[in-house]
Amino acid sequence: ALPKVYVTRRIPPDGLDILRKSGQVQFELWDSDDPVPRVELLNKVKGCDGILCVLTEKIDAQLLDVAGPNLKVLSTMSVGYDHLSLEELKKRGIRVGYTPEVLTDAVAELTVALLLATSRRLIEATHEAKTGGWGTWRTMWLCGHELANSTVGILGLGRIGVAIAERLKPFKVKKFIYTDVEPRTELANMINAEYVSLDELAKQSDFLAICCALTPETHGICNWNLFSKMKKNAIFINTSRGGVVNQEDLYEALSTGLIAGAGLDVTTPEPLPTHHPLYTLKNCVILPHIASASYTTRNAMSALAANNLLAGLRGEAMPKELKL
Ligand code: GLV
Ligand code: GLV
């Protein structure tokens, strides 16, 4: 019999085609745009050889126990892996595929768009124009902060951070600085970025882009301690994971003018409830986790996730395997 696979979401067509045409797996699909209910998920993974999931599915000990000993491969259609209990996967010898690189351009592009939308107050401005606030041309009205001559800080320098810096450089950024658990010399040299401490990153950055993975070490790393060291004109941009930010502290920092603005593509929880206080702030731009959402990239992610899964089931090296 063919290996049994559960696909936890209606993934983009490229990935589905690869699975269908492979003739290599017998797969069942949660054919919906909304997440599969947990109870249904637990029911469906029983006895599976492989699972292809997205970032809304929590892959933990309970799920892996229910899935049982046949499970060999877990393939996630995401670069982030904070929804996976890596320790539990490792313990059971389950191999993990993910989707780095194919989304770097799309995420970097969106990060720049969000940064400019926040620093130049675009959302506020269109709202003013539409709702009668545009009384006349005013000398200081809707003034924001320029990238030209600025210092851009990157928290967590990986492929995405480098791609963001490459795109920002033509805006005449003066200096790139970054912090990470250790210097990333090779990547840093590509963008001429200087390695600094987290403290210095907070103190010097006019724009601070969060580009790290969410791990126990980065959980809540953007908190009052960090915001209180930042410049009054600083713009904070997060396209990584909501969990790296202490949102109460961010709210305080934004509402008291401690920093100038924040652009968030990720929040805790997701979706962020419509009554959340962050929505009431004019200097906070919130997007519904769309950084990788281009047609090209989402298709590429689904194709890579499908190929990771198939390679893993054949016992071969995956195109992109997460080291556990
Ligand atoms: C998106 O957030 C991803 O992890 O791919
Ligand atoms: C702006 O529109 C200017 O003419 O300075």
Automatic annotation (TrEMBL):
MF terms (GO), sorted A to Z: NAD binding; oxidoreductase activity, acting on the CH-OH group of donors, NAD or NADP as acceptor
CDD domains named among the record's database cross-references: GDH
UniProt keyword list: Oxidoreductase
Domain D-isomer specific 2-hydroxyacid dehydrogenase catalytic per the UniProt entry, residue ranges: 5-321
Source organism, top-level taxon: Eukaryota
Pfam families: 2-Hacid_dh, 2-Hacid_dh_C
InterPro entries: D-isomer_2-hydroxyacid_DH (IPR050223), D-isomer_2_OHA_DH_cat_dom (IPR006139), D-isomer_DH_CS (IPR029753), D-isomer_DH_CS1 (IPR029752), D-isomer_DH_NAD-bd (IPR006140), NAD(P)-bd_dom_sf (IPR036291)
Record bears the keyword Iron-sulfur: no
Domain D-isomer specific 2-hydroxyacid dehydrogenase NAD-binding: 112-291
Family statement drawn from the similarity comment of this UniProt entry: Belongs to the D-isomer specific 2-hydroxyacid dehydrogenase family.
Protein name: Glyoxylate reductase/hydroxypyruvate reductase
Native species: Danio rerio (Zebrafish)
Gene symbol of the encoding locus: grhprb
